[in-house]
Specification:
mainly alpha, about 70 residues, SP0561-like, 5 helices, single chain
């Protein structure tokens, strides 16, 4: 899976729950909430004042290492 700005957080968590650490690090502690699970990464970053591109890069790097 390649993560983009349009990736829905719930879909990503269903693929690999370990990525939750990246969302917790930006202050998104409501990962179990139905609303947050339906947000895109871009939407979540806008709400939490985080650089979406940096977060996406970190998650994609993590997933690439996990899948080796």
């Amino acid at each position: 899976m390649t993560v983009t700005r349009d990736t829905v957080i719930g879909d990503l968590l269903d693929v690999n729950a370990d990525v939750s650490q990246f969302f917790l690090a930006i202050g998104m502690h409501c990962l179990g909430c139905p609303v947050s699970r339906g947000e895109t990464i871009e939407e979540a970053c806008a709400v939490h004042g985080t650089d979406a591109d940096e977060l996406i890069r970190s998650i994609n790097d993590f997933l690439a290492k996990e899948n080796k």
